[in-house]
């Protein structure tokens, strides 16, 4: 059995504080694995753990547009979160099918997304399986949707959503996005490098002809997860310990520029 935490839209700092609280609270030998599903309100930009905010973002434009900036505990490029369903997984390696490498774990842990897209009538593929041989996979990009990793999911050649992972001893944490509407161009407008081509390969359900709302997609995502992993999800709220830790992380870390803009540990 897995815990299912069905969360509504929250602010960027709240979302990242809860994700980290779930990771920190997880006991590999005792905790149930977790699937959290949530959204973002207001829209926000999330930086990868090691990005330098002033180098990749036009911070004046962000402030003028009142767009919050939050830093993830996972790596990768900047993502603009709006009109999407986001998932977070916290588990031990024993909770998922065997993998041959950390890279291969992305294939296993995103398989339920392929199942969902197929349920919705789409034909998803991993980038590794469909891109041209000369394509450069895994190239680091400041803007998430400007590059492709081997196990990024493509629909009609365009990247739909993004996924990032963090490892601790005996624990796998992964979160990722499922865009309902393509807001990549809006996100790109807050970057320092705003070359239009950097958002051209991003896709969303709407662009693929699937007009869906947050609630129904969240339910379908949970159903696809259960079927793909052959597990049962039990809907449970955050524990008191997780809530308390999330509140502390929000105050001490995710509500501060020292963490969000500078990446300084508190």
Give the structure's gist in a few sentences.
With about 270 residues, the protein is α/β, with parallel strands linked by helices.
Helical stretch tally: 10
Radius of gyration using CA atoms only? 17 Å
Instruction: Give the class-level CATH name.
Output: Alpha Beta
Query: In whole angstroms, how far apart are the ends?
Result: 35 Å
Description:
The chain is α/β, with parallel strands linked by helices and 266 residues long. It has a single domain, classed as Bira Bifunctional Protein, Domain 2 (BirA Bifunctional Protein, domain 2). The protein has 10 helices and 13 strands. The strands form 3 sheets. A 6-stranded mixed beta sheet has the order 10-11-6-2-1-13, sandwiched between helices. β10 (163-168) and β11 form a beta hairpin. α1 packs across α9 (240-254).
Describe how the helices and strands are arranged:
Blueprint: E1 2-10, H1 12-25, E2 34-40, E3 44-47, H2 53-56, H3 59-64, E4 69-71, E5 79-81, E6 84-91, H4 102-109, H5 111-119, E7 124-126, H6 127-130, E8 153-155, E9 158-160, E10 163-168, E11 171-179, H7 184-188, E12 202-203, H8 214-229, E13 233-235, H9 240-254, H10 257-260
Parallel strand pairs: 1-2, 1-13, 3-4, 9-12
Antiparallel strand pairs: 2-6, 3-5, 6-11, 7-8, 8-9, 10-11
Helix pairs in contact: 1-9, 5-8
Structural features:
single chain, 266 residues, alpha/beta, BirA Bifunctional Protein, domain 2, 32% helix, globular
């Amino acid at each position: 059995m897995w815990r299912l935490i069905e969360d509504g839209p929250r602010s960027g700092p709240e979302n990242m504080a809860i994700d980290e609280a779930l990771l920190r609270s997880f006991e590999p030998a005792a905790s149930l694995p977790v699937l959290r599903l949530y959204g973002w309100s207001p829209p926000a930009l999330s930086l990868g753990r090691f990005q330098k905010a002033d180098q990749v973002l036009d911070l004046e434009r962000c402030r003028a547009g009142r767009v919050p900036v939050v830093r993830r505990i996972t790596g990768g490029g900047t993502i603009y979160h709006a009109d999407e369903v986001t998932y977070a997984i916290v588990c031990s390696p024993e909770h998922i099918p065997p993998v041959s490498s950390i890279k291969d774990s992305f294939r296993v842990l995103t398989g339920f997304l392929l199942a969902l897209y197929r349920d919705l009538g789409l034909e998803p593929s991993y980038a590794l399986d469909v891109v041209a041989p000369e394509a450069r996979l895994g190239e680091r990009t400041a803007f998430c949707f400007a590059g492709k990793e081997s196990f990024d999911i493509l629909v009609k050649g365009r990247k739909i959503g993004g996924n990032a992972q963090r490892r601790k001893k005996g624990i796998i944490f992964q979160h990722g996005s499922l865009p309902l509407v393509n807001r990549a161009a809006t996100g790109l407008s807050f970057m320092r490098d705003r070359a239009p081509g950097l958002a051209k390969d991003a896709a969303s359900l709407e662009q693929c002809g699937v007009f869906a709302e947050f609630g129904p997609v969240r339910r379908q995502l949970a159903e696809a997860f259960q079927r793909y992993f052959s597990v049962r999800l039990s809907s449970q709220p955050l524990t008191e310990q997780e809530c308390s830790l999330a509140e502390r992380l929000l105050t001490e870390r995710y509500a501060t520029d020292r963490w969000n803009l500078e990446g300084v540990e508190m």
